[in-house]
Amino acid sequence: MECALVGNLSNTCFLNSISWRVVRQRKTRMLYSSANFNAPPLFAHSNPPIERTLAVFGSEEFVWPSPADEIPFWKNTFPSRDARIQVPTDIEKDSNPIHIIHVTAEMAPIAKVGGLGDVVTGLARACLSRGHAVDVMLPFYECIEKQQINDLALITEYNTFYDGSWVPTNAYRGVVSGIPVIFIEPSNEFFKGQNVYGGSYNELEAYLFFSRACLEWMQVAGVQPDIIHVHEWQTGALPLLYWDMYQNLSLQKPRVVFSIHNMEHFGECRKDQLSKCGLDGSIYANVDKAMDDRTIGHNPERLSLLKGGIVYSNAVVTVSPTYLKETLCSGWLASTLLRNREKYFGILNGIDTVIWDPANDVFLPANFHAQKPEGKKICKYYVQRGLGLVSDGSLAGDPVPYITDNVPLIVCITRLVAQKGLHLITQAIKHTEELGGQMIVLGKAYDDRVQGEFEDLANSHNQGSSIRILLMYSEELSHMLYAAADMVLVPSIYEPCGLAQMIGMRYGAVPVVRKTGGLADTVFDMDDSSNREMANGFVFEGIDEGSLNCALDRAFRHYREKTDEWNSIVQKVMEIDNSWNNTAGKYIETYNSIRVRW
Ligand code: ADP
Questions:
Q1: Membrane-spanning regions, if any (predicted)?
Q2: Most buried residue, 60, 139, 169, 508, by CB count within 10 Å?
């Protein structure tokens, strides 16, 4: 069996040797309707409606998961998500439709590593539902599961220039979660491997290739969108290629928007590497163009695709107003951003409320929403049982027990990288245990040191009854955890926008966050008496452990001592509209401000 839990519940999966005992597998999802459940106001501490839950849980159909299941509950076969996806039809159409092509390294759910994938899918869907034409161009990573693509068909066989020769390349068209996608598949080794990133090819060169291949396809196919929207350093060379090459060929209409989701990576690139995609790299080694200022005088000096993208795009967007301010006053790119201030905008990300919809989520054992919240309690108990956080032995009869209400469950779903506040996550584990709560970390580490540290933590905690540390990426489990959680922790050192706190809120998890970037724009402290109207979570400022402890203490106290207030804050966070419908309009204004009428 694939190792899913490190230092897992029986502590043997880590050795990859456990044969999980088959107990019972869940047969059907529980769908809540008023017919079988009369919506009691039910969150923390309220008495469970045992008679009614018994009626539901006594059903032959429903089976609780257990840590001993051969197939972990998040790997069950779920109904197709697409069947449930409903593109909102009630959204007013914009009067001047635009054609936008996103060029991106990630797209949820088929090629998602972090928030970039979510943003592309959510923004694309929001613009589609407002009547615009949208395509996404994505590398055809070998790891993409083709059954998640509808109507996949080869549409163009063409050649793309790379490193002195023309590489045969295929373009496929397909539909993913209702969004048209063009997949670029080179015949060389690029984009092969088991993961989106980290294959055994040169990643920088692969994305240089991809940037040119997308423009080449537009030229060959005769497609001229109004807007080419590029994302992150991976596609930062496209604006250079567009203005200095393809504008002199046959593409003239498009204007380019560049989104910066995170300034952690600058797309460091040697001149000779940039030259491989057909540009003369030395032309860009200039402080006003793409020179990485930090490397001046080094041998070799280097370029930054992020900087080049900023300089050469018609508009540059970052993902929250506070991150915009932060990037203008710190970091080596601040001077470049200040020089380009007039075209630099901070637009808060939204979440895709079609994918993240607790009322329709196919991964949940029970659905719920703000007006009918009781399914959330089932989700919490389901996850607790599946991970061995409550023992099934004491729960004969299967009603959701009172104990579930008394123990606050906090989740942290994150890439395990320094930006995310690793020492604070570790401290939260310790402090949650001290406070008698439960915590689940779902995280993927990208370097051996961090992996080792969290494996040690998992080995020392996963045996007990309060902490689970799951070192992997699982889209399905992430949905279940948001739904199960009373609180969602995002203790980032910096956070350009952050989606976990917004998703958590939609699923009724109260956020506990550090005040930085988009977290500061979306979470407002419950104990700030000057801002009661916005109050929706617990905020701390310091990066020290004491600051985190204090926020957790306050959150746990609220949960345990102010039940009614807690229940209403859960309802309030579920009702907050962080959807793209709310924020896509700002992107459309930006697109309109730079497009050329043709
Ligand atoms: P970032 O883009 O920096 O990773 P965001 O908060 O913007 O952070 O977006 C993170 C997205 O990735 C969210 O949808 C979150 O649920 C998801 N995610 C992060 N880690 C995991 C994981 N280990 N398993 C599943 N989903 C994850």
A1: none
A2: 508
